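Final report, results section. Input specification for complex C-07:
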Amino acid sequence: MVMTAREVDPRVQAFLGGGPKRLLIGGDFVEAASGKTFATHDPATGDRLAEVAEGDAADIDRAVQAARRAFDGGPWPAMTAAERSRLIWRLADLIEERSEVFAQLETLDNGKPLTVARRDDVGGTVEYFRYYAGWPTKIEGATVPVSVADTFAYTLRQPVGVCGQIVPWNYPLMMAAWKVAPALAAGCTVVLKPAEQTPLSAILLGELCLEAGIPPGVVNVVTGYGETAGAALAAHPHVDKVAFTGSSEVGRLILRAASQSNLKKVSLELGGKSPNIVFADADMDAAREGAAAGIFYNMGQDCTAGSRVFVEHGIYDDVAQFIADQAAKLRVGPGFDEATEIGPLVSQEQLDRVLGYIELGPGEGARILSGGGRAEGAELQKGFFVKPTVLANARNDMRVAQEEIFGPVVSVIPFRDVEDVVRQGNDIAYGLGAGIWTKNLAKAHRVASALRAGTVWVNTYGATDAALPFGGFKESGHGREMGFEAIHLYTEVKSVWVNLAES
Ligand code: NAI
Ligand code: MG
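Structure output:
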């Protein structure tokens, strides 16, 4: 299906027309200091969607200065909590009003099915901002009974300051929301650097921040490449904290940049290779469907994708075949087609990477049970489409089972018993998510406790909620987003001693 002008919302056309998209710095939309722009593409066709300002170190510096002015003696941290709360809620309302525009921009820029973008990416973002809109009035310190005579001691929880936020392309708007919302609630100011593959929704988010009445300079958006704009933000001496979601490789670079500059605070949400475990005593219909959905959602471009499905001896062949049959049934096509279940991958680079792993699997001894290459069909050849792929007879020590593929490719691995699957499940550098399918309650809780992962789903897979902490053990990250944990990430605790003795 070729997208026609009739199907694109006129507001989206207006947004995409009218010259290169600009940076948001200090409340103004400006060109990059270098004057350079770069193109963002539609992964379903490879066509250029828009030109976008290519910010680099000079622009990051301008944006950090604007964020500093808005923070140091500026309006945002000084505003009453109730007023900050009202403005964040207003932003959520504006995003909701523009839901269709955001959903179409996400589908055009990232490729994901429009039905999913509407429901999850945009719907989830609105709820997420509303959740954090409630927090400013609830960020409290404590009075503490220190053991010193005539002393009153209390804590204040204060905003950490100017936050650099570097986000990936798999959920462009939602990843921005996960970082911007708690930072605003805490009273921080922000320089947001969206991924170069998907910069559009962050630019619109910046526009709506201004429209909501959030003061200029509180949210700045600098589009550009990771190696230039992203690296400059991570290394900037006047940034108090950097928050990052993306690859472990870049996570390491960010830690290094922080340690070599001003020791800014760092929170990281990195990759995963999550075990999704099917025990023989599970509700088999739910478990098999959960195993398939756990990997193929968002084309497998998900940090918690259940990319290692462990299946107990005895039911292995049945479950592997079921997932393969599901994979073959999924409808691959452009995200704008409302019947599409599997859209394109985000870029040629990701397509090459995923196809490389699909070739590697059989070389390591895995058997392709379904999929195994690019999607067929003349209209799909210009885009980055891959068939959902099931690798059976996989072993946990294969590279396809140890490395994050970030595509619709699952390794199905057999196991003997609880002890065996806990050992194999944990035998990996990552620790982001895990799934357990069993009707045995005691076993479910025992395994949930034993798996070294930041989130464990029992008889379900993949849900997140603004109220529940999210993040990784081991190389999957530092810190937790969501809930009060994210407020921790964006605040510093100050202890105040007061001498009450009469002089
Ligand atoms: P990436 O980690 O390079 O990109 C994520 C963000 O980091 C983007 O905004 C990018 O511009 C920025 N960035 C890149 N280099 C940087 C640097 N030196 N300093 C500061 N910021 C920098 O990820 P990429 O290359 O797009 O994808 C490669 C792999 O990373 C994927 O195949 C997947 O395995 C993993 N990944 C994981 C994600 C997650 O949700 N945990 C999201 C995106 C990618
Ligand atoms: Mg793009």
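The mean pLDDT is 97. The chain has 17 helices and 22 strands. This concludes the modelling results for the funded period.
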